[in-house]
């Protein structure tokens, strides 16, 4: 039913060397070496693997929660790069603590303004981490309004 959005849900074919990385630190080292060698694809994969590991360590109960946390960690990676220092998505984490992961995603998407991180996610090749993409992958967990807003936004983004 949301076929136009499926390009955002594609899994990255991950090199076995990257897939076998077990810690965030090992991903960072691998990424640094890959960049030094001009292997931007491997560097990107290492960044994605680090995001996956962070979400796994959080202790999610469902795949929807894991993907939602991956979205937060991807956004933090963007903020960190932009600011030149480790930067947390403080407001998002406060909302997660107060309302839980799924409800925090729902609230973020139901705001009138578009979630801040989307453009930055696209620029870094991490658009699959948009909250809207998570909602469309698991629409039964979210309100009709959140699904509708997500579908509208993703369709607009796909056209641009």
Plain-language structure description:
- With 160 residues, the chain is mostly helical.
- The protein has one domain.
- It is built from 9 helices and no strands.
- The chain has helices at 16-19, 24-36, 40-58, 63-83, 90-99, 101-109, 118-123, 131-137, 144-159.
- Helix 2 runs antiparallel to helix 3.
Task: Explain briefly what this protein structure is.
Helix content is 66%, strand content 0%. It has helices at residues 16-19, 24-36, 40-58, 63-83, 90-99, 101-109, 118-123, 131-137, 144-159.
SSE inventory with pairings:
Blueprint: H1 16-19, H2 24-36, H3 40-58, H4 63-83, H5 90-99, H6 101-109, H7 118-123, H8 131-137, H9 144-159
Number of domains: 1
Shape: globular
Number of strands: 0
Please state the oligomeric state of the protein chains shown. Answer: single chain
Query: What level of helicity do the residues show?
Result: 55-70%
* Main sheet record: none
Calculate the terminal CA-CA distance, rounded to whole Å: 21 Å
Output the number of helix runs. 9
Structural class: mainly alpha
Beta-strand content bin: under 5%
H/E element order: HHHHHHHHH
Poorly predicted regions? 1-10
Mean pLDDT: 85
Radius of gyration using CA atoms only? 16 Å
Any key phrases for this structure?
160 residues; mainly alpha; disordered N terminus
